[in-house]
Design a protein that fits this description.
single chain, alpha/beta, Serine Threonine Protein Phosphatase 5, Tetratricopeptide repeat, Rossmann fold, 2 domains, nine-stranded mixed sheet
Length: 446
């Protein structure tokens, strides 16, 4: 009898097949191939390493760390695996561990540009700004054409107050990567923070040439021009900005001393009593209007038998959902939602949302109509401080609106809402300057 021919694939061939699948953007299928290799060779460094990368891409970050560490136990000098270990640790927020990994990579391979750059990222996350700048500079020394290194250097120099050098870094990045919108965004923001609005407008015009339909560009061109402002930021602008901002929103605002949710919570307690100590069961139907990542949720939950949140950004709503505490979350435009829910709520709270509205003649009446008799509206907005002759609202080059106190009072009165509390507050710090705001509480008659 003749034996049947059987073909066996070598481990190297199996690994090449798995990597090819992985590069096609199929980490789950690639993981199955890596698992087959590991069943035959449990300590295969490449299979362990790439399996870890695949697990990270699928959201299993702890499993990824474990697999890549096993690869390094099998091959301690495996520099690429150690760099990817740092990458996973960085994205998990384990910045000190990531720093240790990147420094080990650089010790083994001093010319590893991305390791220097990523070291800068985790040093910046630890507020070690001078060290971060040094790491970015080293990455650029090794690769002067590395545009992302110039962007990162510009970002950290802006944070340390070295604006002229930051602008120079951004402009170098534009020359190297003229189609990268992140560079124009960073450069324009830096110019706006220095009140160099004409230069910022020119940068937005350059950005417009490569991305003419981008709602962010259109909004900021209108803001920098100082011409007649649109009545509010467009839906597409809000969605684009906050979907992009969602992952870093809480961290960034914490660094800016952002306190609008806390102040709204304090005013709610002043108007309704502190529900945390009242002893009664929550009795109100509450709407967090423009809920973002849900920072107001824990402050409103003690009052709410029903707590809903509404926001235009799916990314922000996803963060609010993970934070928890809401009974329902809705992706919708605020005025439309309020108009579609008459007499539905006992309390509507809107922290740092109306700064994306100029004209309030639709949203305030809609909020009033959504309240039941005796219900309360609590909100913040930015205050126009240019003087008594200022227009009712202004669109500023940073992209947000401010309002006069007189205009806010007039809109509340027209909506049948009685002002129960209004005071001037500092909402946060921006470009090392306080942002002036109004904290407002109003009640519907009845």
């Amino acid at each position: 009898m003749k034996k049947k021919n059987s073909q066996k694939i070598s481990l190297d061939d199996a690994l090449q097949l798995a990597v090819a699948v992985h590069r096609e953007g199929k980490p789950r299928l690639a993981a199955q191939h890596y698992e087959a290799i590991l069943q035959v060779a449990p300590t295969h460094p490449d299979a362990l390493h790439y399996m870890g990368v695949a697990q990270h891409q699928m959201g299993n970050h702890e499993g990824a760390v474990n697999l890549i560490e096993r690869a390094l136990q099998a091959a301690p000098g495996y520099v690429d695996a150690r760099n990817n270990l740092g990458n996973v640790q960085k994205e998990m927020g384990r910045h000190a561990d990531a720093e240790h990994s990147y420094r080990a990579v650089i010790a083994a391979r001093p010319d590893f540009v991305l390791a220097h750059n990523n070291l800068g990222v985790v040093l910046r996350a630890q507020d070690r700004l001078d060290e971060a700048a040094a790491a970015y500079r080293r990455a650029i020394e090794l690769s002067p054409q590395f545009a992302q290194g110039w962007i990162n250097l510009g970002n950290v120099l802006k944070k340390t107050g070295d604006f002229n050098e930051a602008l120079s870094a951004y402009r170098n990045a534009v020359l190297l990567s003229p189609d990268n919108p992140d560079i124009y965004r960073s450069l324009a923001r830096a110019l706006v923070s220095q009140q160099r609005h004409e230069e910022a407008l020119e940068v937005y015009r350059q950005w417009e040439k490569i991305d003419p339909d981008n709602p962010v560009v259109q909004h900021h061109i209108a803001a920098c021009q100082g011409a007649a402002a649109p009545g509010r930021a467009s839906d597409s602008y809000v969605q684009t900005v906050f979907d992009r901002f969602a992952d870093s929103f809480d961290e960034v605002l914490a660094r800016l001393g952002y306190c609008a949710p806390a102040m709204c919570g304090e005013l709610v307690a002043a108007l309704l009593g502190d529900a945390r100590h009242a002893g009664a069961a929550p009795a109100l139907d509450v709407l967090d209007a423009g809920c973002g990542t849900g920072l107001c949720g824990p402050l409103l939950r003690p009052y709410a038998r029903l707590l809903e949140g509404v926001d235009l950004s799916a990314g922000m709503l996803a963060k609010a959902g993970r934070r928890g505490g809401y009974d329902k979350l809705h992706e919708a435009e605020l005025t439309a939602w309020l108009s579609g829910h008459p007499a539905a709520y006992d309390l509507v709270v809107s922290a740092d949302t109306l700064c994306y509205f100029g004209a309030l003649d639709a949203v305030i009446p809609a909020a009033g109509a959504s309240l039941r008799a005796g219900g309360h509206l609590v909100f913040t907005l930015e205050e126009t401080v240019e003087g008594a002759a200022a227009p009712q609202f202004l669109l500023h080059p940073h992209g947000r609106y401010s309002h006069t106190e007189a205009y806010v009072r007039a809109m509340l009165a027209a909506a049948g809402l009685e002002v129960r509390g209004l005071r001037r507050v500092t909402l946060r710090q921006e470009a090392s300057k306080p942002v002036a705001g109004l904290l407002v509480g109003a009640r519907k008659a009845g």
